[in-house]
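Example complex used in Figure S2.
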Amino acid sequence: MGLDEDVIQNITSANVACGFHAGDSLWMKRTVELAEQYNVALGAHPSYPDLKGFGRRNMNIDPAEVKADIIYQAGALSAFTSVKKLQHVKPHGAMYNQAVNDPDLAKSICEAILEFDENMILLALTGSKWVEIAQDMGLRVAKEVFADRAVNSDGTLVSRSNPGSVIHDSSEVIQRSLRMVQEGVIESVEGELVEVEADSICLHGDTPGAVELSKSLKEQFIKSDISILPLGQIV
Amino acid sequence: MGLDEDVIQNITSANVACGFHAGDSLWMKRTVELAEQYNVALGAHPSYPDLKGFGRRNMNIDPAEVKADIIYQAGALSAFTSVKKLQHVKPHGAMYNQAVNDPDLAKSICEAILEFDENMILLALTGSKWVEIAQDMGLRVAKEVFADRAVNSDGTLVSRSNPGSVIHDSSEVIQRSLRMVQEGVIESVEGELVEVEADSICLHGDTPGAVELSKSLKEQFIKSDISILPLGQIV
Amino acid sequence: MGLDEDVIQNITSANVACGFHAGDSLWMKRTVELAEQYNVALGAHPSYPDLKGFGRRNMNIDPAEVKADIIYQAGALSAFTSVKKLQHVKPHGAMYNQAVNDPDLAKSICEAILEFDENMILLALTGSKWVEIAQDMGLRVAKEVFADRAVNSDGTLVSRSNPGSVIHDSSEVIQRSLRMVQEGVIESVEGELVEVEADSICLHGDTPGAVELSKSLKEQFIKSDISILPLGQIV
Amino acid sequence: MGLDEDVIQNITSANVACGFHAGDSLWMKRTVELAEQYNVALGAHPSYPDLKGFGRRNMNIDPAEVKADIIYQAGALSAFTSVKKLQHVKPHGAMYNQAVNDPDLAKSICEAILEFDENMILLALTGSKWVEIAQDMGLRVAKEVFADRAVNSDGTLVSRSNPGSVIHDSSEVIQRSLRMVQEGVIESVEGELVEVEADSICLHGDTPGAVELSKSLKEQFIKSDISILPLGQIV
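Predicted assembly (940 residues):
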């Protein structure tokens, strides 16, 4: 869970675990302090209550409870910031993936954000019905793509339980990222080109090579005249 | 943990558990909604992380971590309020009792409150060193007495592990409460009169007879021309 | 969670929560001592790790982990018995319901039992594929019916999220129980008669009226010349 | 928490975390399988319920509950072994350190072991009152020393919160270990020679360099004609 000081210098927005799948109060406090020191915008990374499974296991939780869980986690994280506000919310793991396919869940997540702070931005999978639901509800949404994840031809992420779901070759990760931003397409596991709009590119701070990857990606973006801005200036 | 709708009509400030010793997100959300409906001011009731022991067991936690735990819990609760603010913080159980005797812990608790929101009020045991520490740090403090707890001659609470620590006779509870407010004294278990300043009287919402007791106490106070005000108007 | 001393005198087998959805070590120890005092046979009631949801929420957990979770919980409970052995295992809540429809999960549960103690009995829903899977694996199985739960025409339980899923009228509960045992049928919510084999009738110790219901049911069974025996003498 | 396959080849007894401070069911299952594969004897490493603090924080828990917690954890671990039995119990962290100074706690730990399996061995700090208490209760005790921990002149361990509490220089660790076994003495932080009886030497599997240290120590012991035997053959 180390949001490494080296990684944080190469990103503009950080998703911080809030204790339900990882992270604890002291780690959250230090991560927020580190992010503020480097002017990195902060977002909550709320999860189902599943420490044992790192929040990656589908759970069938009542949407009203998911909503309360998100408000709880976002509130807890925001308390560590100097302005008592967050830039965005990005649900973690199974909650994120289930929201892509479950409109009721998607709606509850959006309600939680609006109820906590109507100016907050939702980070949601580009091309998903979830993005539409959020926009219809008047929520600010940033469309998200994943630097190191394989995608299906319908634009959803290949499940982590499948081989090849995570791309480990960093030059491939960089090429795919550039293509998503510059050409608006990504190649699916079936070999088809999928159109994507990319407001935000997700990197995982806890994977080996995260520091180098974040640095290379930033350098390539700058070299290719791609501006890297905080979400608040885009959405 | 039911902060009963009937009890809530007889109090002016509620201490709400924040998930570390009791309570969960959905219950917190509903309790906040109920309190706001009856214009009852809200305070966080943070605890050590000890669900198994209901937060009543002394723990030797690093003060920096206690501080982070309090900010986390206060933030989580405040997120459910319509104004995203709390009136006060009252540590629960062992954290409260240890703070009475441990200046480092007391100081960390005060720092947590000041860091989260410097306008919040601390509820702390009347007559304790903790009250002085808080005042010296510039914190708003409400001095608290307990309606149904026996006290030692030094003004500390008789430990729950001792027989007679909780007074169950409601007319005795009411007499002691009136005397604390009107005469500024309470009789200790050793039979001595202890001077107390009482800004706030603590009732436990989860004990049998809580509804009747809260109602009788309120009636007796009104009958005795004692004004019952929110903490914010006193401190 | 009180496995009430009055209820325990009217049953022959107890399902004891093992800490994953309810119960803790001290409560388990006392419950085992109480059951042994009244010669009630003991079974583990393992659950998904979901204290917040009382184990009632479907979770998508790897079967290998479910297996390990069951062995862990059964081992923990058995340690409190005087013979360090259990009579049976009955999965709780969502784990039980998902096993009825998921052969892989059903198989993992059976493997867990066989690996821990091949003489233990599985309590599984009468008429389910799960019962067949267990029998094919050489496991001792007791077919279970529920005294107070409505059933669908395919023999599965009506989900707790549906109205009418739990029958609260005790005379109806008793009539349905007698009919299941004597005639081998139960009426579904759609009004159809469903054939059932009933080795064991499940009562919930934590519902209001549990004491009276268990007593009445026992009396009616005795009056109707139905023998009530420990599972080990039936299966 | 990786009980590394390389470390396990250099030890004769393993202490396995049981989920209260670290470890979960699946990891416990795999660790037991690995240990049995290399004929390493298994012991429970029960802890206070304190995942957040890795079991290292003093807690004031009722001895009856500590006893139940130990039986629970030992039972859970034993369920994964092929013989459903453990060789020993070694309390973890704060529970271990508090037992050295608290006779009531020490006694409860011994009672838990006797109640679960009267043949099990307790691992307790050499020279402590706890060892005497256990022996008086008829428990088999192995006197334990620590390879990499500094000791006070009264034989207790220097607290982890003090600098120098853990010795990182592996040649010093080896020299101290050899001296404890061969000469029966260890030098305290105050420079005094403390007499120690060493039945067992504790290594930490999760510290950097654990593999190399365990290998070197084993080699040095063999070279010095010190036999390394399972606890069961010594006590």
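The interface with chain C takes residues 24, 51-52 of chain B (CB under 8 Å). The first strand of chain B starts at residue 13 and ends at 17.
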